[in-house]
Amino acid sequence: MTEETKNYLNMDLLRFSTAGSVDDGKSTLIGRLFHDTKAIFEDQLEAIEKTSKQRGDENINLALLTDGLRAEREQGITIDVAYRYFATPRRKFIIADTPGHIQYTRNMVTGASTANLALILIDARNGVVEQTRRHAFIADLLGIKHVAVCINKMDLVGYDEEVYGKVLQQFMEFSSRLENLTELTFIPISALKGDNVVDRSENMAWYKGPPLLYHLENIYVGSDANHIDPRFPVQWVIRPHSDKHHDFRGFAGRVAGGVFKTGDEVVVLPSGFSTKIKKILLADQEINEAFYPQSVTILLEDEIDVSRGDMLVKPNNQPSSSQDLEARICWFSSTKKLRSGTKCLFRHTTQEVQALVSDIRYKVDVNTLRKKEDDTEFGMNDIGRISLRTSSPIFYDSYRRNRNTGSFILVDPFSNETLAAGMLR
User: Fold this and answer.
1) By the 8 A CB rule, do 280 and 263 touch?
2) The domain that contains 25 carries what CATH number?
């Protein structure tokens, strides 16, 4: 392996999602990032130029880079979540380009669920609209601490600082009522013209902040992961049954939080048996410690019964355990409604149990953030709070503390349809 390859593999990774109302320019912005960082192949660029001419577009339509579905290209909107990857000399990026339409809110939740940063676009001409508020609320709900608000299409308002200031004030008034948005950055841009996307714009000399790419390359997100609470949900028990590895018994999974070291005392939940870590394997290499987000195999000193769905934790740092759970959810299903008494499968980390919706507390009006306690039925894209009763105890942390052990999905036991995504309180 060359030094260049090694450096590339060790580069920091930033996952971010784009969100905004229809036609705010999300796909164009991503296309611009790709174009100006030279992450597009020549044949791709030629194909886009050809398609743009056929459509009668004045400029190259960079949105075509991400809008892959035929229905999206024809309508000029994003329907599905488009994942795109690119890299600069400073950082690697995974982008989730999420839909703007209200009926695709569930797609936005899916795309943003693993993001470190939410990039919210606002059309400078329209200011903060319903979908802006909805997406800001979802970003807050999903525990995304870093939000970059790009006020787009500044070229269409004459690069006016006053317009930018008004939109900024509108967003600040709404976001002040949200809990998790700890870092807000505002950037005036023109995705179509490239102003403040990769390079600073001469048209907006009044803006003293960095361009978007610089912000994405330099923002620190390492502190977002939970390195305090050791959590290791067991995904697979490895028993080769071969002559070479006759007595091998390892427990494979992904570290969901904290740090595990060789020799550490651990407790197996739910049994409560304790033992020590004998060995930690990363692929075929032995390592001294494992931490999130590494996928490793842990070998224990004692022969303890451990199976999929169990969790390894530290004796003095254990998660909450309960069959009665409080959670916020976003309802996904277009065919089924959520009512009190609904039965479903509850999938959490590597565990799957039966669950009953014991109570619907309220739905949230994402425009006003008011609770609608009299509305006790969830339809597609509805967001609110419910109570659940599971068939066996769940070991969890609050979503705010650990996104990995605080998140779950609800699944239809008959059709296997994903009904909802949820965050434990």
Assistant:
1) no
2) 3.40.50.300
DSSP code string of 51-88: HHHHHT-SS--GGGGT--SHHHHHHTS--SPEEEEEE-
What is residue 128's DSSP assignment? S
Query: How do strand 13-20 and strand 117-123 relate by DSSP bridges?
Result: parallel
CA distance 124 to 331: 31
User: Can you give the pLDDT at residue 284?
Assistant: 81
Contact between 39 and 86 under an 8 Å Cβ cutoff? The reply is yes
Residues 6+ apart with CB under 8 A from 282: 290, 294, 295, 296
Question: What distance in Å separates the CA atoms of residue 398 and residue 221, rounded to the nearest whole number?
Answer: 20
107-125 per-position pLDDT tens digit: 667 766 778 888 999 999 9
Q: Which of 313, 343, 366 is the last residue of a domain?
A: 313
- Rounded to the nearest integer, the mean pLDDT of the chain is 83
- How many whole angstroms separate alpha carbon 174 and alpha carbon 166? 13
Residues 6+ apart with CB under 8 A from 247: none
For residues 374 and 385, the answer to whether their CB atoms sit within 8 Å is no
pLDDT exceeds 80 at position 1: no
Structural domain span for residue 198: 3-224
Strands 117-123 and 146-152: parallel
For residues 419 and 344, is the Cβ–Cβ distance under 8 A?
yes
Claim to verify: residue 376 and residue 236 sit in the same structural domain: no
377 is written with which tokens? 């039925």
